[in-house]
Specification:
By secondary structure, this protein is an alpha/beta fold. It has two domains: 3-119, Response regulator (Rossmann fold, 3-Layer(aba) Sandwich); 126-222, Orthogonal Bundle (Arc Repressor Mutant, subunit A). Helices cover 41% and strands 22% of the residues. The chain has helices at residues 11-23, 34-40, 60-70, 85-93, 106-119, 152-162, 171-182, 188-202; strands spanning 3-7, 27-31, 48-52, 76-80, 98-101, 126-129, 132-135, 140-143, 146-148, 168-169, 212-215, 219-222. A five-stranded parallel beta sheet has the order 2-1-3-4-5, with helices on both faces. A four-stranded antiparallel beta sheet has the order 6-7-8-9, with no helix packed on it. Strand 11 and strand 12 (219-222) form a beta hairpin. Helix 6 (152-162) packs across helix 7 and helix 6 (152-162) crosses helix 8 (188-202). The longest helix is centred in the C-terminal third of the chain and has 15 residues, at 188-202. It comes from Proteiniclasticum ruminis.
Length: 225
């Protein structure tokens, strides 16, 4: 799991970003200003820093330089309300790897994060839960070290579950997600069949699933362990 240092002092933005990032499987530590960020730096193994240029305590440009001095391989993405050429150029001169202009679209930010992590060699492609290992880059699923062969829709369904670990997913939400991927009509009954098949392939005991659990009356949930 990649860990992100978020340096931002706007409470509403922090709450929104933390929710988005955690939902995508990232671990997040938040600092409100320059000194707090520098204090956190040696306490965690960060994979990326999201840094607001306009901080109430300290300066984003100066903090970027300080971060790069201490952790030269730590990629930095600037969050900026200013899209003027000076801010962009100054950010790159300080060692920033990318920048996103506020207000940003969540999917654009997530895409930029993934691209920067990939370029820096810090992207983590293997997701593990209990006896299951999923390499999302190679598309390889292993159960207790043995290859598991899934259909395209079964694999997509598994990725939907894994990307929402800890969250309850309703049947409606699952249908929306796999509809986008399959391009074909998927009925509620068909969803039941695919969940049953997926459990048979990935669970040690499909009758008593430990990965894809049923939450009676609400939907399904994949634990975070």
């Amino acid at each position: 799991m990649n860990t992100i240092l978020l340096v931002e002092d706007d409470k509403a933005i922090v709450e929104n970003l933390v929710e988005i990032l955690k939902r995508e499987g990232y671990r997040v530590e938040n600092a409100k200003g320059q000194q707090e960020a520098l204090n956190l730096l040696p306490l965690h193994s960060f994979d990326l820093c999201l840094l607001d240029i306009s901080l109430s305590e300290g300066n984003g440009f100066a903090l970027c330089r300080a971060i790069k001095d201490k952790e030269p391989d730590l990629p930095v993405i600037f969050l900026t309300a200013s899209g003027d050429e000076y801010s962009v150029v100054a950010g790159f001169d300080m060692g920033a790897d990318d920048y996103v202009k506020k207000p940003f679209r969540p999917m654009e930010l997530l895409s930029r994060i993934k691209n920067v992590l990939r370029r820096s060699g810090k992207a983590q492609s293997v997701v593990e839960i209990r006896h299951l290992s999923v390499d999302t880059v190679k598309g390889v699923v292993k159960k207790s070290g043995e290859d598991v062969f899934l259909s395209a829709l079964e694999y997509r369904l598994l990725l939907v579950f894994l990307s929402h670990k800890g969250m309850i997913l309703s049947r409606t939400k699952l249908l929306e997600e796999i509809w986008d991927a399959a391009g074909d009509f998927v009925s509620d009954n068909t969803l039941t069949v695919y969940i049953k098949r997926l459990r048979e392939k990935i669970e040690e005991d499909p009758q008593n699933p430990e990965i894809i659990k049923t939450v009676r009356g609400l939907g399904y949930k994949v634990g975070e362990e």
